[in-house]
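During the reporting period, our protein records have gained a structure token line. One record among many is quoted in full directly below:
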Amino acid sequence: QVQLVESGGGLVQAGESLRVSCAASGRTFTQLAMGWFRQAPGKEREFVAAISRNGANTAYGDSVKGRFTISRDNAVSTIYLQMNSLKPEDAAVYYCAAKWTLNSAPYNTPDQYHYWGPGTQVTVSS
């Protein structure tokens, strides 16, 4: 089992930056590929970013490329999502996800992940 806890969400104005974090426990972190997804009211869960278990490979959703950066610190079993130039359409609940894997790929669909955090709310005012 893996437990995931997101933190760092909040209210920001359009154009500002925010960093959200996800702390993992319960399994060797380096065996986990990690990802961020988001879901706004009335919309489907959307892929935001993913990172391979060794941090060498990343992937991003088209709507956040160039603005968001995913990273991980294996020493503290945590991943981060740095969000810059936030837009009102970035507002959503952001979920952290983990997938046990032996390879070094990032994964970009929700059904590929085994574990999910409860989410953290990000609100962007215009």
About this structure: The chain is about 0% helix and 50% strand. The first strand starts at residue 3 and ends at 7.
